[in-house]
Amino acid sequence: MVRQQNASWPTGSQSSANAGRTADNRSNGSGNGYSSGDGYRNDYGSSSERNVPGQFDYYALVLSWSPTYCAEKGEDDDAQCNRRDGRRYSFVLHGLWPQYESGYPSDCRLSRRPFVPENVITSMLDVMPNRGLVIHEYRTHGTCSGLDPARYFTTAHRLFDSINIPQRFRNPFESQLVAPSDIRREFLQANPNFKPDMIAVVCSGADKGLKEVRLCVSKDGQPRTCGQNENQSKLCSTDRVFIPPTRSAASQDSPGRRSPPADTGPASTGQQSPLPGPRMDYDYGRRAQ
């Protein structure tokens, strides 16, 4: 078990965390609509070894499917779901979570308050389009990484940028029903450095909507086998996952009608930005029928 934080992957310095105007992290991130973890207990040696900054086994890079979040919890999230410029998101970065092989640390105690500098928050808004989420993620997860906010978020952004998003998730116009195994297969095809036991699909809600894709990496940013937290049978055991679109197809249908979800198989892959441009015509408060 690796105990020391590998400093070769993150960039920046400890002192950079104090640069610029800081945001008050006494906010608990409430109102961002996101939650973390899945109720696993912390099984990491003795109690004195748990929730200690830098003492964990691997990271889970968590990609959130924004249309599902906006439909289920994002009614009041103007930054992500109700933008005045009409921009809609597909996959966004939920977070970079230190994990134990079983369980996970959270809210680790630091010698300083977990302030996130304003310039660091701003640097993350292209992939984490909610200021409260950025602050919440550092308080809950970043404090356990052993990194200051600048290095932690530099690492998270770089890892997110390194992931190729499969073709079907590049601004889909139609809702889809897809097997979790097909989602994993397409991510593996687009990212051949990962193996099947390094990725998990998370679904939620009565209609089993796509919530997240988690990719497991080592402390130095290399793909590695996931632990028990990413047990696929616990995170999403359904045969088909509902994927709401980033853009409605209503304009292509008869008035008052929407296309039914397409039950689709594997799609072709390639590389493109996971963040689409302005999309004006999808009501995130409703599901496509």
Question: Helix/strand-derived class?
Answer: alpha+beta
Strand content: 15-25%
CATH top level is Alpha Beta
Roughly how many Å is the radius of gyration?
19 Å
End-to-end C-alpha gap: 49 Å
Given the structure, what is the number of helices? 6
CATH architecture title: Alpha-Beta Complex
Low-confidence stretches: 1-34, 37-41, 248-260, 268-289
Shape: globular
The largest sheet has its strands arranged as 3-2-7-6
* CATH homologous superfamily designation: Ribonuclease T2-like
Q: Number of domains in the coordinates?
A: 1
- Strand tally: 9
Elements, N to C (H/E): EEHEEHHHEHEEHEE
- Helical content stands at 10-25%
Main beta-sheet strand count, sense and barrel state: 4 strands, antiparallel
Q: Averaging pLDDT over every residue, what do you get?
A: 76
Provide the CATH topology: Ribonuclease Rh, Chain A
Protein name: Ribonuclease T2
Family: Belongs to the RNase T2 family.
Biased composition (Polar residues): 1-19
Biased composition (Basic and acidic residues): 280-289
